Amino acid sequence: MKRREALKNLGLATGLFVASPTITSLLQSCTSNTKIWTPEFLSADQGIVLQKLVDIILPKTDHLPSATELNVPEFIDKYFNEILLTEDQEYVKTAFANMVTQLKPHPDTPIEDVTEATYKLYLDQYMPITGYIDEEREATPKAFGFTKSEFLNHLKWMAINAFLNTESIGENVLAYDPVPTQYFCGNINNLTGGKSYSL
Predict the structure, then answer these.
(1) In tens digits, what is the pLDDT along the chain, a chain of 199 residues?
(2) What is the pTM of this model?
(3) CA distance linking residue 33 with residue 68, whole number of Å
(4) In this structure, is the dihedral angle defined by the CA atoms of residues 24, 152, 54 and 99, taken in order, positive or negative?
């Protein structure tokens, strides 16, 4: 299997991620109490790392909840557990294990003691906004699995898509029309105040 095909199987390289009824249903099933949530696929340490990362990518603001408050980590964990093929799950497990190892300053350091500054430094190093050259991929262009940069960018993409497709964001933040039967033509700023329509 080629690397591009492997990514498509993961659902991370196509727009099918949030478009299918199965994925939407999976997203709606994520209702656990975020303070006591236990991952199904990831280890406990990996679940903590996922929560920290998505809340840095999508933090709580005055007008928006954080990714964790909308159960985005739970969805990502369920997606890995229920949608991925076994061989694809191994790529994810390897990527998470490598990330946890690199985040800890010492192997015996509890993951709870890793500071937010450490997470941000890790993201800045492997997921910069512009001008980044993925040296891992350039060194092994045909290798399977993820480089650190690829995996972080896929997690970011999953988190943003899951966040935007939650019921809370769809109904309370985006422009929402539960029965879209009318057609309007005009500037989106005039029609919705600049908000995109909820799916």
Answers:
(1) 344 444 444 444 444 454 566 666 776 777 778 788 899 999 999 999 999 999 999 999 888 889 999 899 999 999 999 888 888 899 999 999 999 999 998 999 999 999 999 999 999 998 877 777 878 888 888 877 888 888 999 899 999 888 877 776 655 655 556 655 566 676 666 666 555 655 5
(2) 0.77
(3) 10
(4) positive
Lookup: tokens for 125 = 């190093």
Q: Which helix (H) or strand (E) holds 43?
A: none
Q: How far apart are CA 191 and CA 185, in angstroms?
A: 9
Q: Which two tokens stand for residue 177?
A: 């029309």
The domain ranges of the chain are: 3-165
**DSSP assigned state of 198:** P
